[in-house]
Amino acid sequence: MANSSTTESPWPTPPPVHFDSAWPRWAKFLVVLAFMFSAFLYDKPFEQWCAHHQIAIKSDVQLEMIMLMQWGGWSSSILIILTVALLDRYGRRKALAIALGCLATVAVCYLLKDLFGRARPWELGRDIYGFFGPAEGFHSSAYQSFPSSHTTGAFALSAGLAWFYPRARSLFYLLALQVALQRLWRLDHYPSDAIAGALVAVTVVRSVLMWNWPGKLIAALPLPWRRWLLAENREPTIS
Q: What is the 3-state secondary structure (H, E, C) of 82-125?
């Protein structure tokens, strides 16, 4: 008889109920996709407006904004995933699932960046606007605007956390949203870049979890590793 731990899922089944669960997945995808394509109509005027309406912000407030913009970055994601692994009762398997979702999202995001080769908003000063394909995308960060990697990382982390902790999903997505808005305000990305990043992140992370990639990975590992990943965290005893 096969060991039950080889097939145990590292997250609750069925998936937790979210605010958008009443919508079919294909409908949600198409709505956001349409929203992204509509953003191309106002991408350029929006960033030109931002360039001429920069607001002076106190240095201490800027530091706080920079700190918040790190949500979904490498260091913050690693720290948060480690926190989940240490504090949640089933944290090891959940941390693995969130990490796999984030890594898969990063891979898709950077491939798209290189393939599309979109010029950054700051290139508008040189009258450079549009998509230039792999010829530019693979060679210069100035042509890697689409999609926004900061926004993608932020929404990937938020989507993973929201899957396991749906009660706090509004907070997670609000943190991701402020990352996207800061990238627009700092002239690093167009609105469609941010929307595309959010779309890629949520789609990839939910697909990884829905298709049970972490569970399949756990099942393929040696038995001692499986047992360690599926073991519950125990509260330390106080003598």
A: HHHHHHCCCHHHHHHHHHHHHHHHHHHHHHHHHHHCECCHHHHH
> What are the two backbone dihedrals, phi and then psi, of residue 214, each rounded to the nearest 5 degrees?
-60, -40
| Sign of the CA dihedral with 17 first, then 200, 154, and 100 last | positive
E-assigned strand segments in 6-84: none
Under a CB-based contact definition with an 8 Å cutoff, are residues 32 and 195 in contact?
A: yes
**In the chain, where the domains are located:** 24-48+60-113+148-230
- Is the CB of residue 183 less than 8 Å from the CB of residue 194? yes
9 Cβ neighbours under 8 A, 6+ residues apart: 212, 215
Q: Give residue-wise pLDDT tens across range 174-231.
A: 999 999 999 999 889 999 999 999 999 999 999 999 888 888 888 888 989 888 888 8
pLDDT at 55: 77
Q: Rounded to an integer, what distance in angstroms lies between the CA atom of residue 19 and that of residue 7?
A: 29
pLDDT at residue number 130: 92
**pLDDT tens track for 77-123:** 999 999 999 999 889 999 999 999 999 999 999 999 999 999 999 99
* Cα distances (Å, whole numbers) of residue 92 to 80, 98, 105, 106, 215: 12, 10, 20, 21, 12
Contact 175, 139 (CB under 8 A): no
